């Protein structure tokens, strides 16, 4: 099936999310859509899938114009989509999820799940998915949930499969498996639209690459094009993908975590017996796939978790059992993983957000009142220093772009002398230009002699920043390796292999650097 | 940093282990209470539970038990179960559900024996107690089914009270004017749909907070029917407010079975409809295409939308259907229970139905049994005040509400609401 988008424009009010985009997907082809977060890739695919009506432009299927009133029409035309955030009902079984909207029924509208199970098993066997139709979706690992999404599309005879940032939630091993599945689908004559901002993956699987920036197609590229060329096409200017940082000069070890165990409310050990140390002037990166205990670990250090045992000491003082405020007062700076929920108060002004951790100290607090002038002055300084693009210091923080919001959070946390700096996903959803700036700022803090902990699920970021890398898997520490270790080793550790085994195996294989 | 110079000891492992002591504590307190009141404070006489009347076609012998024996046996068994719960919790294991169930049944038996035994006449008709419970539960069951239909599709229905009340009002007026109770039944369904229509339009089309729309609707219906009652119905109650009652339909032979006969086979059409509705809603919700879509729309509307299910239409239809169910439930008040409408006669039953829905974990069968429990509590307080118990009347009348509070507070574990209940779906 040949799919063609001609001059697709989508406006939300005054915002132009897609600006006259043309795209041709040939049968049996993997067509990658490369672009930064917010470039308009997902909007375009939602238009294609019938979730949004295009403001202008038309969609051609096999050279015939079609209009999709909803996803039902798109599916009937042979388009299937695997969304970035899975569209699965968590409390349903696999069979129920697959049946939904396309139910096999017996007399009187009664469900015939047996029929659905048969179809699932057939597809599962054909592609080696190993999916149990009667498993409840919320109990399944993310990688399997993604396969359920693919089954959903295949059961509906999709000829074109849209995969929206499919690797964001996967381990490197699961990613490899997914790329394998994509190759199989392609061999069966299905077309795949692969949306990503990860250059390596795009280069590995694509037949054609279309680069999107600020809602426009800015060019097509061959998968053999060099990475830096793709990156500069994506960002719109030349970017240095490598950070020039001096080797670390670790000083005294001031931060120690010993036997740290965090239990969830259901009694599960989400962090289990963790011990590590961070010295002054070094960056320890904590790598791992999302949801392997990183959030709980950082929150335990900050005093945001209940049911924590073990010990956390900073300069010899126990932090465990202290309130968040005491931990902050002890000199810990913290950038939480979700800035819009935990990092900022969206409806507060930029100036107010910049002093959330110091509002009750001089010069901002004066007795019972607050000094507006001190606040304003502080805001102006920070906005200039961090190059925060905002209309004014009084604009609501929620109206800023992701990168600028993150600069506000970072500026606030760096605004006082720190004994320890922790950042969770410091550059998630941040444009490449701001990433450079934020990374430099973090390295500068390290060079100033602060112990730094970076939690990141992006291997690129981990390898960029880390002096040492600790890998978490299901709450266990797989080991701590030097920052110069290869991706293969990290990939194995992220899938649950202890460091020494992973190092030995990677040494044996010497696999290519994908 | 100067404030935290001494290193505080880390908390020990046992402190941080996640264990809920809620259930063992509640069980222990209740068991102790049972020991003090039902065993030590047991009346010395025998208690008689009658299973049938003398002129029934099939006469069963009455059950005669000794109050102290039952009191002591039950109290000791409850203490044993509480001890078991403590041991299980201490070793970090779960308390089996049967422990809670057996405990509840023992408490009920001990309480009944004690309270009837302490009455002036220690003799009660058990079959009447049960049949009365079902009768009182009928509007609750219809109400909570209405809630199931709405909430499973993602709309919170606080307006059950309003639906019941308007159904009752419409049934009374329509049946009085037409002279036919069946016309009243139809009118009740239509009235329920009208209330639902307002709820649906405001909460789905105009995305108004669903709880607020529901509460406002209840107040509106109460005000409207109250006004019409005093302005129209009371003026000429012969014409406007004297509906014929729905006839009781006895199913031959089956109705003569002791105890369960009157409960299952000696009902008005509203009672039979109730059983049918519970079964139909249950089967349809879990085994039909409509049910799968309804549950999907209530759990994860966006997922349903991406599969071509029209979320808001699905919700709209479900809310209207819920109006039919609750409206019919409302007709019970004026066509079955009493003949005629009274101001605010539903008296908060809609809210109790909401509680039954939560207690029943958003499941039609669960809601049915929860409503039965509430009906039983209400009926028990009625019967006991007739028998003349030592417990003050006011306390007995609190009983259903105390049971409600305990039930909804999650005595039997936390129940999980549909994921998108109360959250409007806006496309895009």
TrEMBL record, chain A:
Subcellular location: Cell membrane
Family annotation (PROSITE patterns): ABC_TRANSPORTER_1, ABC_TRANSPORTER_2
Annotated ABC transporter domain residues: 3-239, 255-499
Annotated InterPro entries: AAA+_ATPase, ABC_carbohydrate_import_ATPase, ABC_transporter-like_ATP-bd, ABC_transporter-like_CS, P-loop_NTPase
Domain of life per record: Bacteria
Keyword set, alphabetical order: ATP-binding, Cell membrane, Membrane, Nucleotide-binding, Repeat, Translocase, Transport
Entry keyword Nucleotide-binding: yes
Stretch forming the signal peptide: none
Key word Hydrolase present: no
Cellular component aspect of the GO annotation: plasma membrane
Single Gene Ontology MF annotation: ATP hydrolysis activity
Protein name: ABC transporter ATP-binding protein
Natural source organism: Arthrobacter bussei
Automatic annotation (TrEMBL), chain B:
Record keywords, A-Z: Cell membrane, Membrane, Transmembrane, Transmembrane helix
Molecular function (Gene Ontology), one example: transmembrane transporter activity
Ranges that cross the membrane: 25-43, 63-85, 97-118, 124-142, 154-175, 181-204, 211-234, 272-292, 316-338, 395-413
Protein's cellular compartments: Cell membrane
Single GO cellular component term: plasma membrane
Keyword Transmembrane helix: yes
UniProt membrane topology term: Multi-pass membrane protein
CDD domains (alphabetical): TM_PBP1_transp_TpRbsC_like (cd06580)
Record-linked InterPro entries: ABC_transp_permease
Name under which the protein is recorded: ABC transporter permease
Origin organism lineage: Bacteria, Bacillati, Actinomycetota, Actinomycetes, Micrococcales
């Amino acid at each position: 099936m040949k799919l063609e988008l001609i001059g697709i424009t989508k406006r939300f009010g005054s915002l132009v999310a897609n600006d006259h985009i043309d795209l041709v997907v040939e049968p049996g082809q993997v067509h990658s859509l490369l672009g930064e977060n917010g470039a308009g890739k997902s909007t375009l695919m939602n238009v294609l899938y019938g979730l949004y009506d295009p403001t202008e432009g038309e969609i051609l299927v096999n050279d015939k114009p079609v209009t999709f009133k909803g996803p039902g029409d798109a599916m009937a035309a042979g388009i299937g989509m695997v969304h970035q955030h899975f569209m699965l009902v968590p409390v349903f079984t696999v069979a129920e999820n697959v049946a939904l909207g396309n139910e096999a029924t017996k007399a009187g509208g009664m469900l015939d799940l047996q029929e659905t199970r048969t179809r699932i098993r057939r597809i599962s066997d054909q592609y080696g998915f190993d999916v149990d139709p009667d498993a409840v979706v919320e109990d399944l690992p993310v990688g399997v949930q993604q396969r359920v999404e693919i089954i959903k599309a295949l059961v509906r005879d999709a000829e074109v499969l849209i995969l929206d940032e499919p690797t964001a939630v996967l381990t490197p091993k699961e990613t490899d498996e997914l790329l394998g599945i994509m190759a199989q689908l392609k061999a069966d004559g299905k077309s795949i639209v692969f949306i990503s901002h990860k250059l390596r993956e795009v280069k590995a699987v694509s037949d054609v690459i279309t680069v999107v920036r600020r809602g426009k197609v800015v060019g097509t590229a061959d998968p053999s094009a060099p990475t830096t060329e793709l990156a500069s096409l994506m960002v719109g200017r030349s970017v240095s993908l490598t950070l020039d940082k001096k080797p670390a000069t670790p000083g005294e070890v001031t931060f120690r975590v010993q036997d740290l165990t965090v239990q969830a409310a259901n009694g599960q050990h989400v962090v289990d017996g963790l011990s590590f140390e961070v010295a002054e002037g070094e960056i320890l990166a904590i790598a791992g796939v999302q949801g392997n205990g990183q959030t709980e670990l950082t929150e335990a250090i900050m005093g945001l978790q209940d049911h924590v045992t073990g010990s956390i000491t900073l300069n010899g003082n126990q932090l465990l059992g202290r309130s968040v405020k005491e931990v902050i007062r002890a000199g810990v700076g913290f950038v939480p993983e979700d800035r819009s929920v935990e990092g900022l108060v969206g409806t507060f002004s930029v100036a107010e957000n910049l002093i959330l951790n110091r509002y009750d100290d001089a010069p901002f607090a004066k007795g019972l009142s607050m000094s507006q002038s001190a606040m304003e002055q502080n805001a102006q300084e920070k906005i200039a220093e961090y190059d925060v693009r905002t209309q004014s210091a009084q604009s609501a923080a929620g109206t800023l772009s992701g990168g600028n919001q993150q600069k506000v959070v970072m500026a606030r946390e760096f605004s006082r002398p720190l004994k320890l700096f922790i950042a969770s996903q410091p550059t998630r959803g941040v444009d490449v230009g701001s990433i450079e700036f934020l990374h430099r700022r973090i390295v500068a803090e390290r060079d100033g002699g602060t112990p730094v902990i970076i939690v990141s699920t992006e291997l690129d970021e981990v390898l960029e920043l880390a002096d040492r890398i600790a890998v978490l898997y299901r709450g266990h520490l797989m080991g701590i390796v030097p920052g110069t270790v290869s991706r293969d080793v990290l990939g194995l550790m992220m899938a649950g292999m202890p460091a020494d085994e992973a190092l030995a195996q990677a040494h044996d294989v010497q696999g290519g650097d994908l | 940093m100067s404030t935290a110079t001494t290193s505080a000891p880390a908390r020990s492992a046992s402190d941080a282990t996640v264990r809920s002591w809620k259930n063992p504590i509640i069980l222990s307190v209740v068991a102790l209470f049972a020991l003090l009141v039902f065993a030590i404070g047991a009346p010395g006489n025998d208690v008689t539970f009658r299973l049938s009347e003398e002129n029934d076609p099939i006469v069963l012998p009455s059950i005669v038990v000794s109050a102290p024996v039952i009191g002591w046996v039950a109290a000791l068994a409850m203490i044993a179960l509480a001890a078991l719960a403590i041991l299980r919790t201490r070793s970090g294991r779960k308390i089996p559900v049967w422990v809670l169930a057996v405990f509840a049944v023992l408490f009920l038996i001990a309480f009944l024996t004690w309270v009837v035994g302490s009455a002036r006449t220690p003799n009660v008709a058990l079959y009447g107690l049960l049949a009365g419970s079902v009768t009182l539960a009928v509007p609750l069951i219809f109400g909570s089914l209405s809630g199931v239909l709405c909430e499973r599709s993602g709309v919170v229905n606080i307006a059950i009270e309003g639906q019941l009340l308007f159904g009752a009002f419409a049934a009374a007026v329509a049946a009085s004017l037409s002279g036919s109770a069946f016309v009243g039944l139809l009118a009740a369904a239509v009235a329920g749909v009208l209330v639902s229509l307002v709820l649906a339009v405001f909460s789905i089309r105009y995305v108004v907070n669903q709880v607020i729309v529901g509460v406002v609707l209840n107040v509106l219906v109460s005000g409207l029917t109250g006004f019409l009652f005093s302005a129209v119905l009371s003026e000429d109650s012969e014409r406007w407010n004297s509906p014929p009652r729905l006839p009781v339909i006895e199913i031959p032979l089956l109705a003569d079975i002791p105890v369960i006969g009157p409960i299952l086979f000696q009902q008005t059409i509203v009672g039979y409809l109730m059983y049918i509705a519970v079964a139909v809603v249950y089967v349809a919700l879990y085994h039909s295409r409509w049910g799968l879509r309804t549950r999907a729309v209530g759990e994860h509307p966006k997922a349903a939308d991406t599969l071509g299910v029209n979320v808001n239409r699905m919700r709209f239809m479900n809310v209207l259907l819920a109006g039919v169910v609750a409206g019919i439930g409302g007709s019970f008040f004026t066509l079955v229970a009493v003949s005629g409408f009274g101001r605010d006669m539903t008296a908060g039953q809609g809210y109790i139905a909401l509680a039954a829905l939560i207690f029943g974990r958003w499941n039609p069968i669960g809601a049915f049994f929860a409503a039965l429990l509430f009906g039983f509590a209400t009926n028990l307080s009625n019967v006991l005040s007739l028998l003349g118990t030592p417990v003050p009347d006011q306390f007995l009348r609190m009983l259903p509400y105390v049971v409600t509070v305990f039930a909804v507070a999650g005595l039997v574990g936390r129940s999980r609401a549909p994921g998108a209940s109360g959250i409007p779906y806006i496309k895009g």
